[in-house]
Design a protein that fits this description.
By secondary structure, this protein is an alpha+beta fold. Helix content is 27%, strand content 28%. The chain has one domain (2-206): 3-Layer(aba) Sandwich (Aminopeptidase), CATH 3.40.630.30. It contains five helices and nine strands. Strand 5 (110-118), helix 3 and strand 6 form a beta-alpha-beta unit.
Amino acid sequence: MVTIAVVLGHMMQMHIVRTPADRRSRELLEAHYRLRHRIFVELQGWEALRRADGRDVDRFDNADATHLLLTDGGTLVGGSRLHPLDRPNLLQTVFSGLVQGAFPADPSLGADWTRFYVRPDRREGQRRTLESAALFCAVMEYALVRGYAFITFVSSIYMLEHGAAVGWRITPLGAPVLMDGKPTIAAWIEVSERALNNVRRATGMSAPLIPVGAGPPAAPAALAVH
């Protein structure tokens, strides 16, 4: 387990959670799974994810996953998940039909970005909130620290436009496909210092959110071992 928190301002903190072993990490992940179920199943209607226990947990919530979780005053308000592309991941299994083009580099240099959300009462329509700004910056920072060259994702066209609006270079991996009545696309984002500077400038986030110590962990045996 690795958990790192960085104060953003007021009581807001960004947590990096992998393979939790301590009580606080387990509590954060449980809140994360329940909030994901509320958002993606109950509000967005992703019925394939529905579970009787009200937790959105899939086979990719495993030891390869890194969860970036945002809290305010100790309460979870947003989150994201990243998987290395050279390990089993959502894009290349569940959504492989959306991938018609080639990755820009070897999969070992990429990560798959999934389950991005901000708690519904912290959203302001299409307006970018502090929470979404923090998560966008944290994802790019974390990718840089880990040495990734690109990030893949699957989303509606809106997310594609949102990423481009913060100055990211985004390249589709195929044509949009109607899924649940919405045009859905797979794409990759270039990871670079320029991309980080652009998203910071667009969101007003100037201070680093991810410490250098969040880079590649030691060998698994050295972790307090998701």
